[in-house]
Amino acid sequence: MIAHVAPNDAFALSTALLYEFNSLGRIFNETAEALQRVIGSNDKVIGLLDSAHAANCISLKSEITRKVVDSTNQELIDYLVASMGSLSTEQLRVVFLDRSSQLVGDEVMAEGTLTTLTAYPRQIIRRALELSACGLILVHNHPGGGTEPSHADLNFTRELASIGRQMEIEVKDHIIIAANRWFSFSRQGLFEWMS
After folding, report:
1. Do 72 and 187 contact (CB within 8 A), yes or no?
2. Where are the domains of the chain?
3. Does domain 68-184 have CATH number 3.90.1150.10?
4. Residue 13 phi/psi, 5° resolution?
5. Among 70, 86, 117, 175, which is disulfide-ready with 26 (CB 3.0 to 4.6 Å)?
């Protein structure tokens, strides 16, 4: 891919990027500054990588648009893994659904550090009301690689589910993404004790 914009340097640049970031997913999710640190100010290569990642995410997201979205649907998981599985910091994304479980919104609601993330249930519920969403799927990543939910993950999900019930907004699932692996609260039966 890099050979299209830097034919003479493609092998060296590709090797340097893979050596530094270990995977194409990590390369796609790095900032321009991080990429420049490795390959210098090669704007064409950085632009190409950014465009390729954006095109891939748009393509995968189009697979879930105008369809019934189930939290463990492979098309949704593929999109989530591509868009946030290799991020170097934590991010909370919310997939908002209408009454028939079709996508009405997909937004990053909070960004954090390598190990922590601060999110506010009030902001999520307010946005759900603005979108007339009846359901939502929480998604966040664990850059460290583990998919097990923390106590904070469990408490936040429980609190949001409780508030959501009062507003007739169902928290359908909470998915944790770590590289290409994932964990679903509903699939593991964790919503049963949250009710």
Report:
1. yes
2. 2-59, 68-184
3. no
4. -65, -45
5. 86
